[in-house]
Amino acid sequence: TFVYKRPAIVTRPLMFATAFMSFFSVVIALFK
Q1: What is the pLDDT of residues 8-28, one digit of tens each?
Q2: What single-letter DSSP state applies at residue 23?
Q3: Full residue range of the structural domain in which residue 21 is found
Q4: Which residues of 8-32 are buried (b: 16+ CB within 10 A; e: fewer)?
Q5: How far is CA 29 from CA 22, 25, 32, in A?
Q6: Is there a contact between 3 and 10 (Cβ–Cβ < 8 Å)?
Q7: What is the pTM of this model?
């Protein structure tokens, strides 16, 4: 209930972090 009260504050940075990590891993794979 505590997290469900404000999902935008938790979901947006989480999605941004996931997208950034996936992009970073792709860049590392390309450079390796």
Answers
A1: 566 777 888 899 999 999 999
A2: H
A3: 2-31
A4: eeeeeeeeeeeeeeeeeeeeeeeee
A5: 11, 6, 5
A6: yes
A7: 0.52
